[in-house]
């Protein structure tokens, strides 16, 4: 299992907004994650917390591109966390090697074709709408089957756009248009997601369904979540703290 470290270059992300919102802070945190053994650094310049308003493409790129240019020089793989094809393009030119699109291509109709042209790995997440109203879309009869069906639709679009099958990674989108019970049901039946045959990314770090009054109070539960996934054929976990998760992976060989 790989450890993907979250680096939000934003003032308003739910768990760490403002902690790394300058170039200097972001680069320092990136270097710290590298020292802790991170496998991939996921850099984002737009918060996707519930209720968040979108920033402009110009602002998003101003936040992330200089940080990507600097940290990519270390040789650690960098993923760009963006819903915009234009930002993905500029990020890869700056040194990113993976595109992590939480909308799975639904937010920008040009994304799949652009990623196909870039020829890089693409993380396709289950998504039903932007942050400002996604909670109202958390309505399911069978959340696992519906999430899988909706992911498969986007997979088909991605493949038909020219993205190579072996470049696709999927993410069931914990917390995105999902209530706590939906997240837990997905985790309980995660084998149904891995059985699709694609690498799977899980991003549950410090999210509300884990309990606790604040994101920092959910760190122990996040570590427990990673521990529970070690035997589940998960490609990577996306986490805020690197060291304890890396320690778990190493200890379990």
UniProtKB/TrEMBL annotation:
Its cofactor is Mg(2+). Pathway: Cofactor biosynthesis; tetrahydrofolate biosynthesis; 7,8-dihydrofolate from 2-amino-4-hydroxy-6-hydroxymethyl-7,8-dihydropteridine diphosphate and 4-aminobenzoate: step 1/2. Its EC number is 2.5.1.15. The keyword Transport does not apply. InterPro entries: DHP_synth-like, DHP_synth_dom, Dihydropteroate_synth-like_sf, Pterin-binding_dom. Residues 1-250 form the Pterin-binding domain. GO terms for cellular component: cytosol. Pfam families: Pterin_bind. It is an enzyme of class 2 (transferase). GO terms for molecular function: dihydropteroate synthase activity; metal ion binding. The keyword Oxidoreductase does not apply. It catalyses: (7,8-dihydropterin-6-yl)methyl diphosphate + 4-aminobenzoate = 7,8-dihydropteroate + diphosphate. GO terms for biological process: folic acid biosynthetic process; tetrahydrofolate biosynthetic process. Keywords: Folate biosynthesis, Magnesium, Metal-binding, Transferase. NCBIfam families: DHPS. This is dihydropteroate synthase.
């Amino acid at each position: 299992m790989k450890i993907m470290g979250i680096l939000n270059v934003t003032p308003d992300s739910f768990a760490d907004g403002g902690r790394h919102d300058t170039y200097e802070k972001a680069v320092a945190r990136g270097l710290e994650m590298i020292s802790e053994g991170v496998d991939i650094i996921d850099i984002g310049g737009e918060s996707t917390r519930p209720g968040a308003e979108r920033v402009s493409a110009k602002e998003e790129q101003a936040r992330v591109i200089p940080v990507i240019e600097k940290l990519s020089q270390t040789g650690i793989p960098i993923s760009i966390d963006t819903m915009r094809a234009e930002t993905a393009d500029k990020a890869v030119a700056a040194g990113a090697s993976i595109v992590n699109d939480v909308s799975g291509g639904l937010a920008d109709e040009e994304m799949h074709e652009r990623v196909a042209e870039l020829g890089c790995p693409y993380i396709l997440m289950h998504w039903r709408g932007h942050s400002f109203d996604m909670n109202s879309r958390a309505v399911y009869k069978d959340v696992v089957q519906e999430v899988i069906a909706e992911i498969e639709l986007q997979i088909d679009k991605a493949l038909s756009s020219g993205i190579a099958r072996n470049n696709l990674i999927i993410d069931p989108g914990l917390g995105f248009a999902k209530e706590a019970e939906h997240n837990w049901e997905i985790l309980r039946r995660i084998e149904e997601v891995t059985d699709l045959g694609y690498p799977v990314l899980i991003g549950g770090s410090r999210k509300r369904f884990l309990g606790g009054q604040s994101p920092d109070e959910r760190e122990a539960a996040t570590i427990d979540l990673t521990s529970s996934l070690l035997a589940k054929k998960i490609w990577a976990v996306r986490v805020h703290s690197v060291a304890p998760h890396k320690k778990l992976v190493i200890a379990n060989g």
